Amino acid sequence: GGDHTVTYPILQAMAEKHGPVGLVHVDAHTDTGDTALGEKIYHGTPFRRCVEEGLLDCGRVVQIGIRGSSCDPDPYKYSQDQGFRVVPAEECWMKSLVPLMEEVRRQMGDKPVYISFDIDGLDPAYAPGTGTPEIAGLTPAQALEIIRGCKGLNIVGCDLVEVAPVYDVSGNTALLGANLLFEMLCVLPGVKTK
């Protein structure tokens, strides 16, 4: 639950303890907008604010599943200009993400990493209970490949955001979100899963 603004103060705290962190960000949107309705802090701006404050190690940021509507004619430009790796959803369609996560693990190295998972990274067929659904997203199996692919990284924290129970008439979104959070807990350093 919670919208993606919650990640901003969390990353402030993480950077205070660990310095700039790497980021594995799963989302339909880059969340690097500048303002909305005149406000600089909202769920579409957290990662721009994090860049501005030096909270992210920009060469170790990957955004996976990005797609959907945007008011910007080049919605990936800001991220790419910062050195983020942007993996649009169409690069993920119909394939395993295990090879991608092998590359991501090399990119992240042994320095601190934070995982931020917006439930709208998944296709609304699986996770309709969110405020900004976008078609043609990731599958639950791909979500598991991403999270399980983070095992062995120096993960210092994680979140799962944007579950909106009022839109989740079946309860599937909450079930999926809870399971993905459990999977994130299982890949934290020192957690024994066997």
Automatic annotation (TrEMBL):
InterPro entries listed in its UniProt record: Ureohydrolase, Ureohydrolase_dom_sf, Ureohydrolase_Mn_BS
Keywords: Hydrolase, Metal-binding
Origin species: Centropus bengalensis
Record PROSITE patterns: ARGINASE_1, ARGINASE_2
Record-stated family: Belongs to the arginase family. Agmatinase subfamily.
Gene Ontology BP terms: putrescine biosynthetic process from arginine, via agmatine
Protein name, as recorded: SPEB protein
Molecular function terms from GO: agmatinase activity; metal ion binding
